[in-house]
Design goal:
With 316 residues, the protein is mostly helical. The protein has helices at residues 9-18, 23-42, 52-69, 77-86, 98-119, 127-133, 142-173, 175-183, 188-199, 230-233, 269-286; strands at residues 50-51, 204-208, 213-215, 218-220, 225-229, 289-292, 297-298, 307-309, 311-315. The strands form four sheets. Strands 1-9-6 form a three-stranded antiparallel β-sheet. Strands 2-5 form a two-stranded antiparallel sheet. Strands 3-4 form a two-stranded antiparallel ribbon.
Length: 316
């Protein structure tokens, strides 16, 4: 996938899908995101325990993914499953074996190949149509197509989903922050950046050094594989005061590195922020408090920092 490529191939493939998050398209998506968020939140019970991950985080992000792919809405939970399987190994409990994982990913590519064939020669701004008709992507091999699909599915699902869950858990751990933003809604955009910093939904990314670099008294040699720990950088006390604390009015919250940096910076970062911002705007309009009533269950992964279950009670 293009996250693992160098220019110029990286640039061609990234540019092919960039239009889906262009400013005009984001503006058009805003009303759709709000409509979906309102419908989901209005359907939640008050004063009754339920799973926030299942009812809100998964459903909202999966609906958004279905829009971005123009994916059959009734099958949208397949996207959730494929996203989970893509980063799973047998010890996670998501799949029983590597063979099962590969079989499910082949089901994914077969499904998407059918959609690809249907959209050749068609006009549209969804990710499949853009890839199927892009000058530099229309002849893509199936496994390369699968790689890019998984990148887009995980990037649009796991990250935002777990930030949505993490934001509720974080405001439970630091209840004064909920009250702070409830009293001043202008803090919401900064609060979203702080949530993404504090949660850091993807813990790291691995790169290969192209040249020798001296850093902090150590030499990274050309060809060395380097893991960049976003989770560590976002909690670096040299950069962030009291980094383990969630502070919705933190003055440098936007300096987090959860979206990566440089040519591989997450191209959907504005969309992710928009989804979280709208969710918080609508949550604060409806609920005086969201109580986390049990320690959340987390996924088993060094890579994806996420939640599989979070029992909450919403108060009107």
């Amino acid at each position: 996938s293009f996250i693992a490529m160098d220019p110029p191939k990286h640039d061609h493939q990234r540019r092919a899908v960039q239009g889906v998050v262009a400013p005009l398209n984001l503006k058009n998506l805003e009303s759709v995101i709000r409509e979906r968020a309102v419908a989901i939140l209005d359907g939640l019970p008050l004063g009754v325990e339920f799973d926030w991950v299942e009812k809100v985080s998964i459903e909202l992000t999966t609906q958004m993914l279905a829009i971005l792919f123009d994916f059959p809405f009734e099958d949208r939970r397949k996207l959730t499953r494929w996203s989970d399987v893509a980063t799973a190994s047998p010890e996670t409990g998501i799949v029983e074996s590597e063979a099962q994982r590969r079989a499910e990913l082949m089901e994914c590519v077969e499904y998407f190949m059918n959609l690809w064939q249907q959209r050749i020669g068609k006009e549209g701004h969804d990710l499949i149509t853009l890839l199927a008709n892009g000058e530099n992507t229309r002849d893509m091999e199936p496994m390369e197509y699968l790689g890019n699909l998984i990148l887009l599915i995980v990037g649009g699902n796991d990250t935002t989903r777990n930030s949505m869950s993490g934001s509720v858990y974080g405001s439970h751990l630091f209840p004064s922050e909920w009250e702070k933003v409830r009293a001043n809604r202008d803090l919401i955009p900064n609060a979203v950046s702080e949530i993404i910093r504090w949660q850091t939904p993807l813990a790291y990314m691995r790169r290969t050094a192209l040249e020798d670099v001296d850093m902090h008294g150590k030499t990274i040699k050309a060809g060395d594989k380097v893991a960049m720990w976003y989770a560590s950088g976002n909690r670096d006390e040299r950069k962030f005061d009291d980094p383990d604390t969630l502070l919705f009015d933190r003055n440098n919250a936007r300096n987090h590195i959860s979206f990566g940096f440089g040519i591989h910076r997450c191209f959907g970062n504005r969309l992710a922020e928009m989804q979280l911002q709208i969710l918080w705007e609508e949550m604060l309009q409806r609920f005086s408090k969201i109580e986390v009533v049990a320690e959340p269950r987390r996924n088993i992964s060094s890579f994806v920092k996420g939640y599989t279950e979070m029992k909450v009670i919403c108060r009107g």
